[in-house]
Amino acid sequence: MTHFFEIVYLVVAVSLILTFDSIEAARNNKFVTCGSVLKLLNVDYRVRLHSHDVKYGTGSGQQSVTATEVQEDVNSHWSVMAATGKHCERGQPIKCGDTIRLHHLSTNKNLHSHHFQSPLSGNQEISAYGDDKGVGDSGDHWLVVCSGDSWRRDTPIKLRHVDTDAYLSISGRTFGRPINGQFEVIGISNPYSGTDWTAAEGLFIHPTEGDSGEPRHTEL
């Protein structure tokens, strides 16, 4: 009889653990996490943050960063990484107030800014920067501005550039050739129009998956 109760106790304990793990996994599904790959959608302009191997003809001359209305474009994939010289656990939710890098997968550069003027509107230039290994400098660092504890996938955030305090935004102006129709991405000092971004399509890594697990994703 004692053995029977031991088995019942074990079954109940395992069930509770599995239930807790399921709840925890569901909770983590709601967040953007370290190591995830995503597309960032501007809430006001409905365009996705984008880059490509096209240099600015003015300003820094670095790789240009734009925004595109095209949803299915591989040049809009960005990986969420820790600040230079720092480490974040793969699958760990990004906290509000964390400093991150956004690494452009296609060109191995990082989202970057500095005190150069943008080519169309004369605001602060946003570029993509880094060496062949994707290593840049403090100009690649962005502070996640959001409410609550962590960056939720269904809630807009702002990205504030650490070195200059400028917010990632859209000017509303568009380029001609060779990037015809793409929107100018800028940094501005006031966190108002055009500064809200949300996680759109992506491949999101979660702690419960482990290094060998299959990441959950939506259409890239």
Automatic annotation (TrEMBL):
Residues annotated as signal peptide: 1-25
A GO cellular component annotation in the UniProt record: endoplasmic reticulum
Domain MIR positions: 29-83, 91-147, 148-202
SUPFAM superfamilies: MIR domain (SSF82109)
UniProt xrefs under Pfam families: MIR
Compartments (UniProt record): Secreted
Major localization class: secreted
Record's keyword terms, sorted: Repeat, Signal
Protein name from the UniProt record: MIR domain-containing protein
Species in which this protein is naturally found: Culex tarsalis
